[in-house]
Structure formats: structure tokens, C-alpha cells
Amino acid sequence: MKRTIALTILLVSLSSGIFASNYEEVMTANIEKMYQSISASELTNLANQFSRIANAEKKEWLPGYYAAFCYLRATYIGEMKAEEIHKHLDMARAELDKVLKKANDSEINALQAHIYQLRITDMDKGMKYSALANESLAVAEKLNLHNPRVYYLKGANIYHTPKMFGGGAENAKPLFEKAAKMFEEFKPSDKLMPNWGAGHNKEMLVLCNSEE
């Protein structure tokens, strides 16, 4: 029994040491896999890997951020039912809640806003989660005026809001245009920092133009 416990402690220590010594390398490889993954199961496995890194690297917030982002990205894939979407978003939120205890970055609040947006799986949820998304985006913008994801997500919120409440393509387009320009100029402060949204922002601009 004692030998088993000692072996477990040794393996955990070695695992933590590997993450500590190769943190950037492991993170880079996992981030690349994340963007290339085409199945929810692959993304769930990556989320678990990021979560383990977060447990080993307790001062770093990016591993937990990417764990949350993996669960969120899984909802993009296939025709996932509303119940399954909310299950994945619950897991994303659980990871992000841990991250918010470590840091309060613009990117974290932007991702939180995106989680709220994806909660809108029917009209009844629209008002509540759209408002929560806007609150998170206001914080994200205050923390970094030059974060293009803020304006991309603001545009998405407005686009999907009924016209009678100030939404629609016409009102969303200026935000997508602003985000597009900022994406062109944006350079992450670190190669591990978030760098997503440009492609979908471009698609949304095309959609807005088609509705003119």
C-alpha cells in the first residue's frame, strides 16, 4: 500500500516536472491540435489535457482558458442538440470560473461573453444571455480597447438581436468592419495568447453585405 502511494506521488511529481520544463512546447502543440480538431471527442480529450496542465501550472491562466475554449468549440461541430450544447457550455464555464480566480484579462471576459451567446438556443434565453454577454464584453473592452474579439462578438450579439430592439445586419456591420480592421493589425503579445475569430468575422461581414 505504501509503495503504491509513493509510486503515485512520484508519477504526479514527474508529470508536473514535465509540464513545468516543457510548458510552452506542450501548450503550442495542444493549441495547434485544438484548431485542427474536427470532432467533439478530440476537443474533449484536449480540454482534459489543458486542465491537467492548469493543475500543474497553477499560476498560468491560459491552460484553463483553452480547456474552456475546447468545450466551447465542440459545440460548433455537427448538429449538437440544445441539451448537449448546454452540457459542454457548463463544462466550459466551470473551467473559466477557475481561470477568473487567477486573472481578469480581456480575453477571459470575451470568452465568457461567447459562452453566454452560445447559451441562446431558443428565443426564451435571448434577453437574459444577450444582456450577460454585453456585460462581459463591456469589461473585456475596458481591459483592452484593441482586442478584436470584443467587437466581433459585439457584432454577433447585435446581428442576432431582432431589428425592433436595435439589432440586425445593418447595425452589426460597422462592428464587424471595425473587428476586421483590428484583426489585420492584431499581434498577440505572446504566441500562446488567443488568436481566434477573424475567419468567422469575415463570414459575418459577407452575410451582412448580402442582406443590404
What does this structure look like?
The chain has two domains: 1-103, no CATH class; 105-212, Serine Threonine Protein Phosphatase 5, Tetratricopeptide repeat (Alpha Horseshoe), CATH 1.25.40. The chain has helices at residues 2-21, 23-36, 40-56, 62-74, 82-100, 106-118, 126-143, 148-159, 169-185, 198-210. It is globular and about 55 Å long. Residues 1-18 have low confidence and may be disordered. It starts with a helix and ends with a helix. It is an all-alpha fold and 212 residues long. Helices cover 74% and strands 0% of the residues. It has ten helices and no strands.
Helix content: over 70%
Number of domains: 2
Annotation field: number of helices: 10
Question: How widely separated are the two ends?
Answer: 71 Å
- The CATH topology annotation of the largest domain reads as Serine Threonine Protein Phosphatase 5, Tetratricopeptide repeat
**Which class do the helix and strand fractions yield?**
mainly alpha
Oligomer: single chain
The overall pLDDT average reads 90
CATH architecture of the largest domain: Alpha Horseshoe
For the report, how would you describe the main beta sheet?
none
How many distinct beta strands? 0
Percentage of β-strand residues: under 5%
Low-confidence stretches: 1-18
CATH class annotation of the largest domain: Mainly Alpha
Which geometry do the CA atoms define? globular
Which secondary structure elements does this structure contain, and how are they paired or packed?
Elements: H1 2-21, H2 23-36, H3 40-56, H4 62-74, H5 82-100, H6 106-118, H7 126-143, H8 148-159, H9 169-185, H10 198-210
Helix pairs in contact: 2-3, 3-4, 4-5, 5-6, 6-7, 6-8, 7-8, 8-9, 8-10, 9-10
